[in-house]
Amino acid sequence: xxxxxxPTLRELAVQALSSVEHGYDLLAPTFDHTPFRTPDVILKAVxxxxxxxxxxxxxxxxxxxxxxxxxxxxxxxxxxxxGVDFSAGMLAVGRDRVRADAAPRxxxxxxDARALPFGPVFDLVVSFGAFGHFLPGELPGxxxxxxxxxxxxxxxxxxxxxxxxxTSPKYWALLGFDTAMRVRNALWRPPFVMYYRTFxxxxxxxxxxxxxxxxxxxxxxxFGRRPDGSPRCxxxxxxREAEAGSGTASSG
Length: 252
Prior knowledge:
Keywords: Methyltransferase, Transferase. This protein has helices at residues 9-16, 20-27, 40-53, 68-76, 88-97, 139-149, 169-187, 201-210, and strands at residues 56-62, 77-85, 106-110, 122-126, 150-161, 213-219, 233-240. By secondary structure, the protein is α/β, with parallel strands linked by helices.
């Protein structure tokens, strides 16, 4: 699962017994060599879909980590891209990885997704693999924050994989991981919130609608379909309603 440049089992154990923020500070130098980074094939599929919907002007990568999603934004946004994360270590790695003179220029901001330090200035917000760090009860506040930093007509987009079938090894691996995390958090402080099975498609759609978004979803064709015909991976596209008389999200 890990390349020779990734963390050791001992390092992972130390990180897992830390807070989420400190754990990612420790993991940052080797994060891009772990399976926790969003695979390039998903990033490319999202980029292609957003490119067909754009272009956009100002983009935000929510919980950006080392900036894999920032690369997507730089290809679909014309004017600026911003990454926000509460791990200073992850931001430092991302800042060092991305060339400062590449266009559009990137800004890296330390902040909490539950209290975003921005006004309504973005046309596009993306997020990759971060929602497992939020408990279901936090979703209304999180989506309200994203709604508040989008311009009228702006878009929130993120990929969601189909849940694995109960007969598949992946189903039991994710169930085992989530169970281990619940036991860890019951016995150890500070908690480390990371669950794979709490971010459910139907519930997410309902909470986005309650936050004031118009919600669509689009199959990402590169990943095919399950035997029942449903997509293996979808892109959720949630749009903040445009105000009467306002321009489009990319008119910036």
